[in-house]
Specification:
Blueprint lengths: L3 E5 L18 E6 L1 H4 L3 E5 L7 E3 L27 E7 L10 H10 L11 E5 L21 H10 L3 E4 L29 H9 L1 H4 L4 H8 L1 H12 L9 H7 L4 E4 L12 E5 L10 E3 L3 E5 L18
Parallel strand pairs: 5-6, 6-7, 7-8
Antiparallel strand pairs: 1-11, 2-3, 4-8, 4-10, 5-9, 9-11
């Protein structure tokens, strides 16, 4: 056994960093400078959902599944985003939903059984962290989770899920598609990403992301059977279902993992992420690290070098 070391699993923060499509860039301004005041003091203005960050239940819902008002950051335990962890190598095809079968396969490949996951932090490595940039590739065309993955996390009784993607849900489950504020963003072809997805995978595959289309194809009864548990607590079924299934059942979530994630793929370690102690907070930027035995680190993986933007 070697000594314990920390591996950084966070993307760097700076003014020109990549951001979710409807967020404003961080504003970083000096209040004092060395030349003028002999000290450097800077002011930062940004959403707490910038870069590598944690979500609180109140970010996406009014009520949790047990009937309580959705919890703010300050109401969560101090270790809500920390614990014994395993990094799963999830092999989902481009722009597709992560399925229960994908997750079962990833668990089996680390030599574990699903029943061993209870109370653990799951770190999902899909490869999206390597695309982190101000680009459609990272945001519009990301693979991601949805209803099936959310139900799977709840079934396993995990504590927290930390992902290397733009959100806890597939982009078409978010406001990038026909949910929430319905941005219906444009893809590389000049067509909307909804139209592009339907052309590539068909309307029935797209229906998973769109309440109206799902009901048109499968009927209201089928929709209620599949998404009714979300609708019952006042949530629009196809709008970020994985967020709501996780957070509404007390499973915390971290988005935009990065850094040296590839050094811990398939490994077990202690995952540590701590939000600021923000009263009535909806989430927080976090520094995520893996505390791992140095002998367990994946060999021959060079340190991550960021080449986008001002970096």
């Amino acid at each position: 056994m070697g000594k314990k070391v920390f591996v950084d699993l966070s993307h760097p923060f700076f003014g020109d960093m990549p951001l979710w499509p409807y967020f404003a860039k961080p504003e970083i301004a000096p209040m004092h400078s060395m030349a003028k005041g002999g000290v450097l003091t800077q002011m930062i203005k940004c959403t707490m959902h910038t870069g590598t960050h944690a979500d609180a239940p109140r970010h996406v819902m009014e009520r949790m599944f047990d009937g309580r008002r959705a919890l703010y950051s300050h109401e969560l335990p101090v270790d809500a985003y920390a614990g014994e962890a395993v990094c799963l190598d999830v092999r989902t095809k481009d722009w597709q939903l992560i399925t229960a079968a994908d997750l079962d396969d990833a668990v089996a490949r680390v030599g574990m059984k699903n029943e061993e996951l209870k109370g653990m932090v799951l770190v999902l490595r899909t490869g999206m962290h390597l695309k982190f940039d101000d680009s459609k590739d990272y945001y519009h065309y990301s693979l991601g989770c949805g209803l099936e993955a959310g139900n799977w996390f709840v079934k396993q009784g995990v504590k927290c899920v930390a992902m290397d993607q733009q959100a806890l849900d597939h982009p078409l489950h978010t406001s990038m598609g026909n949910n929430g504020t319905r941005m219906k963003l444009e893809g590389y072809s000049g067509k909307g990403i909804i139209e592009e997805f339907i052309e590539k995978y068909g309307e029935e595959a797209y229906a998973e992301f769109d309440k109206d289309v799902y009901i048109k194809i499968h009927g209201k009864a089928a929709y209620d059977a599949k998404f009714g548990h979300l609708e019952a607590i006042g949530c629009y079924g196809t709008w970020e279902p994985c967020h709501k299934l996780m957070l509404g059942n007390g499973i915390t979530g971290v988005e935009n993992l990065g850094g040296d994630l590839d050094k811990v793929v398939g490994k077990r370690f202690r995952f540590l992420a701590f939000p600021i102690r923000w009263h009535l907070g909806d989430g927080s930027m976090v520094r995520c690290v893996a505390e791992i035995d140095e002998d367990d680190i994946v060999p021959n993986v060079p340190p991550r070098i960021y080449k986008y933007g001002a970096m």
